[in-house]
Fold this protein.
Amino acid sequence: MAYKFKSRATADLTMLDAPGKQIMLVLGKTPGEPGIVTVEQIPGAISALETAVVEDEKRRKALEEEVKNGNPKAGEALAKLSDELGAVSLRQRVKPLVDMFRASAQEGKDVTWER
């Protein structure tokens, strides 16, 4: 299944299940259920996504450093993280959604999603 994000300010955005679920959790929303980010909530949503991106990049970088230093458990953790999230970074995944949020805020439109 996939998540479909909608706004009257932009084209629809479709996101696969695993990354969509991750983003729902970052936004403090219940995965799998339809929802809304109101215009008033958009700045907080953008901030939450940007914070999650920074944390994700720090975690990936720390694991990569441990792998370089020969820690076999770090290699397993990095492989598991890649299996869960794929080769695409969180920064790449959230960019279109953040762009949607910014355009929606500028035009005073809410963002909704369904699954």
